[in-house]
Specification:
Mean pLDDT: 95
Structural class: alpha/beta
Largest sheet: 7 strands, mixed
Shape: globular
CATH class of one domain: Alpha Beta
Low-confidence stretches: none
Oligomer: single chain
Distance between the termini: 68 Å
CATH topology of one domain: Rossmann fold
Radius of gyration: 24 Å
Helix content: 25-40%
Strand content: 15-25%
Bound molecules: adenosine monophosphate
CATH architecture of one domain: 3-Layer(aba) Sandwich
Length: about 550
């Protein structure tokens, strides 16, 4: 074999920021801070502060390989930690502040974190955990001296640490496979599992995402990541934005519809990224104001299935929707819903049918669906199987967890996502459910996502979820849980009318129940586990014979 004669330079995270600071000098990070102000800094200013932070981390006694925990909202200081840790060969370990104290303690212990950087809001969490954490752990409050809180724990002040340091840092030339980030998945069963990203995987993912999402990520674009830096790397935006020249508008703790609308309006955000529950809030504010935020022309929706009614709502207001799918273990983006050129002029309804799917794979992520025996199934839009993925930005195993690794990786090295899906001949992925959320009625599978999509279009439904309820004859039957939009409640007969054009009769829900709000997981998704527990003893009406 004749080998190429090309240089091999390591792919390093710090080079993304250096590149942004050199070639996109005016792009900025705008942050709503816990102190209550709006802060701005350019990429060159950010690079200087990251240099100061790199020295500060070393002054704290940290060195290569050490894990640095963060408990923080989306803001410039959190962004700085991503880069300073990576640049110095350390690992930025983002912790989801919405986890339970037990889960946080498990994660902090498993990761063997040495220090915790936290936002002002999370002081009560730190004070609550302190007694259970190892001696010698340091806590850094991410604020300036004037805003340092009274605390029962010894605290260091972030801005003081930086002020003492030089902005010039001679970043080491690391091996590109060095770890740079760690994020635990908040699995609904068992202990959380850690995805340990490398410099190489993070840089490649930034390039894959930049290529796939050029409609939102470009020189001069202004992106609002509602998706948190504390979960799934804010879909890779901290890495992709400086590479592509996009500004980041960080919303801090204010994630309600009215606050997001105001921020988008004021900062002329053109692209906003987040989970469907967040967009329900924004849609409410759009309805209140009778207009969309000035300049907004794209929302990227992922994390759970974007309901078709939501996509249609945005699109008919002139805001394009990109429906994306991925996982913590995939850095996280696997597919995006940017339509192929020949589909962009389809009639509205046909276009919406395509956009309600989870999109096509990004370069660098291969997809396969398999049956229960692990045999690959055709991509014909009909065969449904478990989705497996392979690529350079996908975990090859979980951090220090051989059992979880063995369960997730197949004999050919593909990662099992736990999602059940079909893929059509054009490569469009349709997620049917998490495997554990599918409803098995008389041996046949029913997709809860498909039913939810149809029911969400009804004006009397603000939100809904379909779960399996136990049934003496059919094992499980679909139960529709609805949050009503107003005083009138949708009845089962109305649901049946909605179902009729789309589903066989045996797939229709057996009953409707009403709740004030759907329970959410720590990552803002509807918790079907809690709903199943809530309705575990629910007596379904005897519609289909026992
Ligand atoms: P996480 O690692 O917390 O981001 O969760 C990943 C899981 O979220 C995936 O395995 C899917 O079950 C679900 N998910 C993410 N994006 C979508 C989407 N667009 N549609 C349906 N499910 C999604």
């Amino acid at each position: 074999m004749l080998m190429g004669q090309m240089m091999q330079r390591p792919l390093l995270v710090m080079d993304l920021l250096k590149f942004g600071a050199e070639t996109h000098k005016t792009a900025e990070i705008v942050s709503v801070r816990c102190e209550g102000d709006l802060h701005r800094q350019t990429y060159p200013e950010t690079l200087d502060r990251v240099g100061q932070l790199g020295h500060a981390l070393e002054a704290l006694g940290l060195s290569s390989g050490d894990r640095v925990a963060t408990l923080a909202w989306n803001g410039h200081r959190h962004f700085e930690l991503y880069y300073a840790c990576a640049g110095a060969g350390m690992v930025c370990h983002t912790i989801n502040p919405r986890l339970s104290p037990e889960q946080m303690l498990y994660i902090l212990g498993h990761a063997e974190d040495r220090v915790v950087f936290f936002d002002l809001t999370f002081l009560p969490i730190i004070e609550g955990l302190k007694a259970h954490l190892p001696e010698g752990m340091r806590f850094i409050c991410m604020t300036d001296r004037a805003h340092m809180p009274e605390a029962s724990v010894d605290l260091l002040c972030y801005e003081d640490l930086l002020a003492a340091q030089d902005a010039t840092y001679d970043w080491p030339e690391l091996d590109e496979n060095t770890a740079c980030g760690l994020c635990y998945t908040s699995g609904t069963t068992g202990n959380p599992k850690g995805a340990l990203y490398s410099h190489r995987s993070s840089v490649l993912h930034a390039m894959y995402t930049g290529l796939a999402l050029q409609t939102g990520l470009y020189d001069g674009s202004r992106i609002l990541p509602v998706v948190p830096l504390f979960h799934v790397n804010a879909w890779g935006l901290p890495y992709a934005a400086p590479l592509m020249g996009a500004s980041l508008i960080m919303p801090g703790p204010a994630l309600d519809g009215a606050s997001l609308f105001k921020l988008m309006d004021g900062e002329k955000v053109n692209s906003a990224w987040g989970v469907p529950t967040v967009w329900l809030g924004l849609q409410g504010e759009i309805a209140n104001q009778g207009r969309t935020p000035d300049g907004l022309n794209q929302v990227v929706i992922g994390g759970s299935a974007a309901p078709r009614a939501m996509i249609e709502g945005f699109e008919s207001q002139g805001v394009g929707v990109c429906h994306a799918w991925g996982m913590t273990e995939m850095s996280p983006i696997g597919t995006t819903g940017i339509l192929p050129s020949d589909a962009r002029d389809l009639p509205f309804a046909d276009r919406m049918t395509l956009q309600a799917k989870q999109g096509r794979r990004v370069f660098g992520c291969e997809l396969k669906i398999v049956d229960e025996a692990g045999k690959a199934l055709p991509h014909d839009g009909e065969a449904v199987g478990e989705l497996y993925v392979r690529g350079n930005a996908i975990v090859s195993g979980y951090f220090n967890n051989d059992d979880a690794t063995a369960a997730a990786i197949d004999a050919d090295g593909w990662f099992g996502t736990g999602d059940v899906a079909h893929i059509d001949k054009d490569g469009f992925l349709s997620i049917q459910d998490r495997a554990k959320d599918l409803i098995k009625s008389g041996g046949e599978w029913i997709s809860s996502i498909d039913i939810e999509n149809v029911v969400m279009a009804h004006p009397e439904v603000a939100n809904c979820a379909v779960i399996a309820a136990p049934h003496p004859k059919w094992d499980e039957r679909p139960l529709l849980v609805v949050v009503p939009a107003g005083d009138t409640k949708i009845m089962l007969d109305d649901v049946n009318v909605l179902m009729e054009p789309h589903f066989a009769k045996w797939q229709w829900p057996d009953d409707v129940v009403f709740v004030d709000a759907l329970p959410l997981t720590a990552t803002g998704k509807v918790s079907k586990l809690i709903l199943r527990q809530t309705f575990a003893d629910y007596q379904l009406p005897d519609l289909r014979g026992t």
